[in-house]
Amino acid sequence: MQGYAPILLLLMIAVSLPVLVWTLSRLLRPDFYSKAKYSTYECGITPVTEAREKFNVRYYLIAVMFLVFDVESVFLFPWALQMKELALFGLVEMGIFLFLLLFGYGYIWSKGALTWE
Amino acid sequence: MTPLWLIPVLPLLGSAFNGFFGKRAGKGVVSAVAVGTVALSFILSLVAFFAMQGAAGHRLEATYYEWMATGGLSVPFGLVVDPLSGTMMLVITGIGALIHLYSVGYMHEDEGYARFFCYLNLFVFFMLMLVMGSSLPLLFVGWEGVGLCSYLLIGFYFETDYAPAAGLKAFLFNRVGDLGVAIGMMALFGMFGTLTVSGILTQAGHLSPEAGWGLLTFATLMLFVGATGKSAQIPLYLWLPDAMAGPTPVSALIHAATMVTSGIYLICRLAPLFSLTPHTLTVIAWVGGATALFAATIGLVQRDIKKVLAYSTVSQLGYMFLGLGSAGYAAGFFHVFTHAWFKALLFLGAGSVIHAMHHEQDLFRMGGLKSKLPITFVTMLLATIAIMGFPPFSGFFSKDEILYLAYLKNPALWAIGVLGACCTSFYMWRLMALAFWGEPRDHHAFEHAHESPWTMTAPLAVLAVGAVFAGFWGIPKAFGGSFAIEGFLAPALTFGQSHGAHAGHHEGPAWLLAGISTTLGIASGAFGWWMYKDGLAKGEALGAKLPGLHVVLLNKYFVDEAVEAYLLRPVRWFGNLMWKLVDVILIDGIGVNLPGALTRVAGDFTALFQTGRVRNYALTMGLGALLLLYVFLK
Amino acid sequence: MNGFAAGLWESLVSGSKLIWPQIFLTFAATVMLWPADLFVEKARKHVWAPITMVILALTGALIYLTEPGVGFSDMYKVDGLTKGFQALIVLAAFLAVMLSQKLLDALREQTVEYYALILFSLVGMLTLVGATDLMTVYFSIELMAICIYILVAYLRDQNRGVEAGLKYFLLGAFSSGILLYGMSLVFAAVGGVTTNLAELNRLLPVVPQSSSLLVFSGVLMVLVGLCFKVAAVPFHMWSPDAYEGAPTPITAFMATAPKAAAMGAFLRVFGTGFAGVSSDWMLPLSYVAGASMILGNIAAVRQQTMKRLLAYSSIAHAGYMLLGVLGKGVDNAQAVWLYLLTYLVMNTGAFAVVIILQGKGEGERIDDFRGLAKRRPFLAFAMMMFLLSLAGIPPLVGFFGKFYLFKLAVESGLTTLVVIALVTSAISAFYYLGVVNQMYFKEPADLPEGAEPEVLSTGMTLIVGVTCVLTLVGTLAGPWLVNTMFRITWI
């Protein structure tokens, strides 16, 4: 258990800090409410639509794909650094990994996920 | 070697065919299949019978597979042919085939032609299982099966009111007896640890005669209770007269020649056991004797031709038990054999009369049929002479041997038997006189009466031959014969043991006894004929002179009424109470509906949690996990 | 090549022998998705069903041929348990694919993804039952679950299906979190040295007193995570909704294959990994099992739709099967396997009947079964057999499995739970017979205009017929099954 004491400490500090800051600011700041203060602030121009806006679903698709390839590169870095030690094994393992990703890439391509119209 | 299994299976196949395809196949095919299978079965039985005589120990046995094996119980599925079962098989398939043939004529106008033969064939199958089964459970299967077929066939005319009721009555009375058989079987299993007949009898051979006390007496008494149910003895005889509601061939086959004798068969099968229990034998003898006389007196006044014969059957079965009880297994069984011929003949003859008279069963509306139905008349006359015990017709030898043995056991039993025989003689001649002599009392029916077709008369003729000559198989020793049947049956009855079948010495005034009973029988028969040959007048006058006795006999000693008042009504009342209190309130209400209702309520309650909101689900999960953590945290 | 890499290489080569079925499945499903699907016209996507069935049959053969052994640094093991449960899972998938064809054809929703996802989820399940390391358990559960989330929501234009898929996904993620947390606590409790089950079994009973809380909460959380997968009360909430919303063949699939896989994992993790600390989890699991039997059966009574009824019934059956986990012995595991096999047969049959009726829009509601005996006597009879068998009425095959399981549970001293199981079985007969009552003793509702009962397809008839026959006379194969069952062992 002892080894986890710093984590617990960090957790406590992490929780207490925002509590402390918010409480302090609440106590220190002046409170003047007016209607204008509740309106959406947009460079002084009166807002015309809701702030919440729907994004095209393709953004999500792209984002997910980005994530996949991002993770791929995260895997590639350590492998690249240890390439000499891992030798043939590493090459084969990474080959399988990339191969599968390549299939996935081919799949989404053929499904038309990369076309934007 | 003959495939023994084919013998029962053939009628079963016939039954299945007629049951499934009978309606479409047409009457010709149905009759061919029904009669053919039983006839084939008869031929195979003959082959097996002769093979058996050549076999070691006069016994053929075939075991097919292990039928039941649980714990200490092991029952093989096997069939046995020995002198006892072999004779029964010949009777069942032989007389059975004749009656099937007869039925082709008798039933040809009936709607349920195929159904009838389906049941009848099924009966033959079960009856064969009963006699051929190598173990008591298998015998019991046949026992139950014939009860079922009997029920189905008695209630054959199900559109009437009385037939289904009569079927039910027969079934219920038989159930009481069946319980006895089941209990007896369990007791025997408890004693011997096996249920095969050979196993039980082999072990019984090692028992000392003193072992007859206690459990063995109980077991044999229970088996006898079963026998009284199936063979219609006091007190379980009430169903047989009602069973006449079934078609006449059924009465002939099931309720005269075969099924009702299965009680006697059961006792003969286990004869060595019964020999060890003298008390049981005494009970059997007295019950048999009482039934013989009691039923015969009722038969004196019946108007329905089939009812007369039914009471006669009950009475004759009583004689058989009287023989068994007097340790004359061979004699009792001999009477089974002879009775099968002449009683089947009488029933078929009665059927022929009924057929000719357009389903008129009332003796008082017949008369003068002698000239119209010559073949029926002659054959029935022969049967009547046989049943009254006129030498040398078949009934004489078997009945005389029984009476003789009864005399050796107790002269009072002999007296009862002779009295019964006189009644038998009287009611049979009364029946003959009313039906065939005198003036026709129903002119319309008489005008249209005609002799039956050959399919009906041919069996009559064959049976008549048997009724006359069957007795020569067992001419008693007292009359210079060898009582051959006893020697023939000995391997089955004694099972190779010294004590067993009848071992008493023949001593006593055999000729004198036979002379007395025969003379009295002829006298009462002649009296009966004289009383009724010219019509009803003399009989009515006699009835008027003895009003009390006449009423009592006419109402069969009021036994049915007494049963209704003192047994059925309280049972119904109690049943009603149980139904309303225990069944409706306790079991249905508290036992079934309440848990059902509770379950439903609980189901609704659980449905409250299934809100469909994923956050509630997650909450339940989380709380569940926390609850487990909390509750089981040490 | 240096020593370290050579060792890894060696391990990869020797280990890959153990996972040929998985490798084959992965490869086949991947190729199916791309590029093979490019060459199949849109109208002919249904060809993937027979191809999938062939792949599954080959997988079955591979499973049969795989030699027992241990590999991947003791993270995966092939033994009797692995092979037995793998065979069950593949069989379940095979039946599910057979069931799928008709419905997907009718809805015009045939795609390659459907079949590929089944295959991918299968890879997870096959690995799960052989997992001998908490890490393997975790990632194979995830692989299995993610594919099934998607399959539940497969019919995207039906709100119900999408909702069910989303619910299942959210709750599944939640339970995965709990599971992973529990694993990490266990990992911490033994000093952060291993997640291997055999090692854990050695180390857990001897952890210092100060860590016993960690052990307890860790084990309990793993238990919660696995209970979620087998849908045991109170972690069952997702299952009625998911079962109802999913396409019916997927419901049948979910009720059998993932359940079998999770039961396999349950048996192995708790039977070998946590066996030494059984005092920590026996009692909680008993309560979970008892609650599943009671709640599953009681809640089923008032269900209006057949799929929900079967969902609750499957919760109850999970409760029964947990008896086998609680028994802890190898023979108990065998009984669970047998139970799953019988359950697979009768459950598939029941769902097949639902699917046949569903073809014309009926079959979902229990009312739709009204008078079925008059309209379709064969189907009604088969359904009756399945339901009676599910209720465990002898001599049907369901009784066989139940009897064996309960008998062993009694011998393991779980008398109270077995009593609960028997009582709730009686309750279950109540709702199963309710359906029989609808089929046999109620007059059929008037069919809508023109809705003639359609002719059964050969495949569906085959499934219903074969499962019905197996349900009826499967007990005859009892000795053979028991013999097979005895090969379900862990080395």
Structure, described:
The complex is a heterotrimer of chains A (117), B (634) and C (491). The longest helix of chain A is centred in the C-terminal third of the chain and has 28 residues, at 83-110. Chain A is built from four helices and no strands. Chain A is flat and about 70 Å long. In chain A, 69% of the residues lie in helices and 0% in strands. Chain B has 634 residues and is mainly alpha-helical. Chain B has three domains: 1-134, no CATH class; 162-554, no CATH class; 570-632. Residues 499-504 of chain B have low confidence and may be disordered. Chain B is 73% helix and 3% strand. Chain B has a two-stranded antiparallel ribbon with strand order 1-2. With 491 residues, chain C is mostly helical. Chain C has one domain (3-485). Chain C has a two-stranded antiparallel ribbon. Chains in contact: A-C, B-C.
Highlighted features:
heterotrimer; A: 117 residues; mainly alpha; Methane Monooxygenase Hydroxylase, Chain G, domain 1; 4 helices; flat; B: 634 residues; 3 domains; two-stranded antiparallel sheet; 26 helices; 73% helix; 3% strand
Write the SSE topology.
The complex is a heterotrimer of chains A (117), B (634) and C (491).
Chain A: H1 5-28, H2 35-38, H3 57-81, H4 83-110
Helix pairs in contact in A: 3-4
Chain B: H1 6-25, H2 27-54, E1 60-70, E2 73-81, H3 83-106, H4 113-132, H5 136-154, H6 162-192, H7 197-205, H8 215-230, H9 239-242, H10 248-257, H11 262-269, H12 271-275, H13 278-299, H14 305-325, H15 329-356, H16 374-388, H17 394-409, H18 411-436, H19 443-448, H20 454-469, H21 484-494, H22 510-532, H23 537-545, H24 547-554, H25 559-609, H26 614-632
Antiparallel strand pairs in B: 1-2
Chain C: H1 3-16, H2 20-33, H3 48-65, E1 69-71, E2 76-78, H4 80-107, H5 112-130, H6 134-152, H7 159-189, H8 197-203, H9 212-230, H10 238-245, H11 248-273, H12 278-301, H13 306-327, H14 330-358, H15 372-375, H16 377-391, H17 397-411, H18 415-441, H19 458-473, H20 478-485
Antiparallel strand pairs in C: 1-2
Helix pairs in contact in C: 2-3, 2-5, 3-4, 3-5, 4-5, 4-11, 4-14, 5-6, 5-11, 6-7, 6-11, 7-9, 7-10, 9-11, 9-12, 10-11, 10-13, 11-13, 11-14, 12-13, 12-18, 13-14, 13-17, 13-18, 14-16, 14-17, 14-19, 16-18, 16-19, 17-18
